[in-house]
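Example record

Each entry pairs one chain with its bound ligand, protoporphyrin IX containing FE.
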Amino acid sequence: MGTKAVFLLLALLSFSAVSLRSALAENEEDPGLVMNFYKDTCPQAEDIIKEQVKLLYKRHKNTAFSWLRNIFHDCAVQSCDASLLLDSTRKTLSEKEMDRSFGMRNFRYIENIKEAVERECPGVVSCADILVLSGRDGVVALGGPYIPLKTGRRDGRKSRAEILEQYLPDHNDSMSVVLERFAAIGIDAPGLVALLGSHSVGRTHCVKLVHRLYPEVDPALNPDHVPHMLHKCPDAIPDPKAVQYVRNDRGTPMVLDNNYYRNILDSKGLMMVDHQLATDKRTRPYVKKMAKSQDYFFKEFSRAITILSENNPLTGTKGEIRKVCNLANKLHDKS
Ligand code: HEM
Ligand SMILES: *[C@@H]1O[C@H](CO)[C@@H](O)[C@H](O)[C@H]1NC(C)=O
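Structure tokens for the complex follow.
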């Protein structure tokens, strides 16, 4: 081997050692999402959240529906970055003001949890992680499965209302659109079917239902369910000031269970997407399986929530740890 070749070899070796070392350093700084991310910086974090969820749930049962719905509306829109929680600013309209976010409520209880965490560990735990973990613990309060989830998400600085419709399907979109949107974030047909099982709790306002009742009743609706829906939604154009809604699952409205699948197989699904889930040949087999087996529903639900909650997170040095969940730090520091 000539001197030149030896030199080249040495250069190559040291270069790869350097790049290996910097790759490792980068990894140390940004492990991505991991189990128990706060074990050194705020070991009590997950327990505080769990405790707060229990306390708040006792006083305001329906806040558990909101925590669960939050995971979908935050994570499915680009990233689990708590952008859903941001208020509008002078320049931008926030996601929660849009029609796709209609009916979303109880945001102040997320702030309560954040305050409790901040008292113990100021500036450490992200709103994005609090959003996901409160949803996880809310599922348990509703009788659903306990889902171990990773943490380490950081908070985004912006909420972009104008991109919402690209990511969140509407209540009357076709199953092809719905399947496509979920596939784009790695959720397959059984995963989608399981996630929509969330419509086993909570409510749907009449504005999202009246097109199935007026001017004519949708013949696809179970005639036994129609009188109840008409009773709850007596006007073709609901009074925007009256809070008129139908419970998603009349049988067990407070429990996350597989009754939803029996309802939709019985044509008692409220929204078009619920109804289509039971009739489309791509999803119907899983609906039938989940109607029969709560275990299968819970298994698929846990798998799909995990994928959803890991959608494109901000980690490492990206984003920030918000001081309060409804404001980016830049705006918080000004006020
Ligand atoms: C195709 C997908 C979906 C569509 C079109 C959709 C649409 C809707 C609509 C229109 C409502 C009624 C809101 C109201 O009137 O107050 C609702 C409620 C709800 N959704 Fe979904 N949703 C979808 C998927 C999901 C997923 C994946 C989850 C959870 C992981 C979820 C959780 C909930 C919950 C818990 C409620 C009840 C909220 C409450 O009572 O405050 N939804 N959804
Ligand atoms: C879905 O419903 C909305 C009202 O919530 C309506 O504006 C829209 O045209 C409907 N879309 C379809 C595809 O029927």
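The radius of gyration is 23 Å.
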